[in-house]
Write a structure and sequence with these properties.
By secondary structure, the protein is an alpha+beta fold. Helix content is 27%, strand content 29%. Strands 1, 2, 3, 4, 5, 6, 7, 8, 9, 10, 11, 12, 13 and 14 form a 14-stranded mixed sheet that branches.
């Protein structure tokens, strides 16, 4: 069969790539590709460079997707999604990335940060042969949590309450906890409300799975987004943030576990998060693998 590649285009391809990622998933994320919720969350993120989406490339055989090369937020990041029978396409995918998905420094120099799973010896050998060097500070761990059938109660300090956005979708409160939770100084800019609307704009976003902790003051002080993919029965945790004035009180843990618990009630058997922080390890997440960043300046 002849394999062709083409430009990524519009809502139809958004859905087709998502379906492809669902179809190639293997338990434990052993396929090494993005989870479908990762792809969806990318499109809802306020930092996404939407002007460059057409540079994402799709490889097809008989009109069926077999590979995708994409960035996440900005050009220069390169991620490889492949069908297990078509890993030989990675050389072609890297060629394309170096020509079309490169980023530029402030001085105009080109660079590529290629993300390679630590078990993908084929791709690691390829990038090394082209002069890429590992940049440890950009490593992206993938961790999983096996969801128990009998989920333990999620407890909070007195005066704090767990809610979902189905209960209270106050965009200003959401904006504030995410702004402060990601360590931005001061109060959030009002125009950022549009960012929070965008985060709720993708097809599978669910308010009932997006969890907040409300303080006695009425403010939201912890936030955990949770995504449910029903075909493979997986949950995906992203983003998670807690107001710095309310950390080390178990609020972030409670928000994450409540979202995972709700996904488990829907049928999910495992939850994933793109982190290996001790915060997640203490809940029972264990690291599966690292997606290492290999960088080359041209």
């Amino acid at each position: 069969m002849v394999i062709k590649h083409r430009q990524y285009s519009g809502p139809d391809d958004f859905a087709l790539v998502g379906d492809f990622l669902i179809s190639v998933y293997r338990p434990g994320n052993k396929d090494g590709n993005w989870l479908q919720p990762t792809w969806e969350y990318m499109h809802s993120h306020p930092n996404l460079d939407e002007s460059s989406l057409s540079k994402i490339r799709i490889w097809e055989e008989s009109d069926e997707i077999v590979a995708v090369v994409n960035y996440e937020s900005t050009l220069g990041e390169v991620f490889f999604q492949t069908h297990p029978k078509h890993t030989h396409l990675k050389q072609d995918m890297l060629d394309y990335a170096e020509t079309h998905l490169y980023g530029e420094t402030e001085t105009g120099n080109r660079f590529v940060r290629a993300f390679v799973n630590d078990f993908d010896i084929e791709l690691e050998t390829l990038v090394q042969s082209r002069g890429y060097e590992m940049a440890g500070k950009y490593t992206r761990p993938i961790s999983e949590f096996l969801i128990p059938q009998q989920f333990p109660p999620v407890e909070l300090l007195e005066g704090f309450h767990i809610k979902s956005l189905a209960d209270d979708n106050d965009l200003m409160k959401i904006h504030r906890v995410l702004w402060r939770g990601f360590d931005h100084a001061g109060e959030p800019p009002e125009e950022g409300i549009e960012w929070r609307k965008k985060m709720q704009s993708t097809p599978n976003f669910r308010k009932d799975l997006t969890i907040v902790v409300e303080a006695p003051s009425g403010d939201f002080v912890s936030f955990s987004g949770t995504w449910y993919e029903s075909v493979n029965k997986i949950a995906y945790v992203e983003p998670v943030a807690t107001d710095p004035d309310y950390r080390r009180m178990g609020l972030g843990k409670a928000a994450v576990l409540e979202g995972v618990r709700r996904c488990g009630a829907l049928g999910a058997t495992v939850a994933y998060v793109g982190s290996d922080m001790k915060f997640y390890q203490a809940m029972g997440f264990t690291k599966n693998f690292d997606s290492n960043c290999w960088i080359k300046h041209f």
